[in-house]
Amino acid sequence: MLWITRERPKIDRLACPWLIKKFVDEGAQFVYVPYDQVIEKAKELNAVPFDIPNVEFTHYDDQSTFDYIVKKYNITDPAIAIIATIVRGADTDRHDIAKEAAGLWAISAGLAYNITNDYELLKTSTFIYDALYSWATNLYQQRHLQNSPFESLLHEVYNKFLKEKKSDKKKVPDWVAELKAIIQDQIDTQFTFDLKKISTELSLNPSYLSREFSKYFEDLNFGEYIRKIRIEKAISLIENSSYSLTEIAYLTGFSDQSHFTRIFRQHTGKSPSSFRKNITKSKPDTKR
């Protein structure tokens, strides 16, 4: 069977091919094309489109395409249930639902950055998902320090050191205020964020900035904080403007309406349309 999806894969579009070949069709083949060609090429090649809107194999509510394939083909392997949660968290920026999700996102993004050929990227990613499957099958309950007394001792010493360091009150670095100003400027203009570029502007090492960021920004990592600011701006636009929700999604930097809706619901507990209806109802009727 031939499957087709958008080019430049990172999470779902690499995880799904691995899942299909391992549990659905060992001989499956995959094609990557530009987004606007997927449906046309699917018809031309008699291929199954996946991980794009308005097709069968796609996201449903808060579930990823990987989740749908598991359900569609009744894959009951417990290890796949573990991996599905990790893939879902990485693919929808909900790293809170599986602590491994942030790692999968980082590895996938790094692979995509290093490998520009989609088919080579797919081949390489197979090793990642094979390893993840072995871990989920055999090592899920095992911890790194569990069987290593020496490393456990190092960990204990390190934790003690951290506690001592935390007890020392430190002045907030100057770069924190500068970064807040940069973020605010970006929000009010193009609303794009490049951690590497910002690190250069602040004359900081990107790794240091990424590591230290949460200490001064509400205990959130860079991506979480930016999403929070985006949603706060979206709420302000919903409350104080007549922009459509599609326009608001664009103005707040979301790649598409469905992504905007998912992140908005995570932060507010409501969809943007429901939120707007409640705001409208709560406003006093000024017409007499």
Automatic annotation (TrEMBL):
The name under which this protein is listed is: Chromate resistance protein
Q: Which SUPFAM superfamilies match?
A: Homeodomain-like (SSF46689)
Which keywords label this protein? DNA-binding, Transcription, Transcription regulation
Q: Which domain of life is it from?
A: Bacteria
What InterPro entries does this protein's entry cite?
A: ChrB_C, Homeodomain-like_sf, HTH_AraC, HTH_AraC-typ_CS, Tscrpt_reg_AraC-type_HTH
Q: Which residues form the HTH araC/xylS-type domain?
A: 177-278
| Region Disordered: start-end pairs | 268-288
Q: Species name for this entry?
A: Pinibacter soli
Which Pfam families does the record match to this protein? Answer: ChrB_C (PF09828), HTH_18 (PF12833)
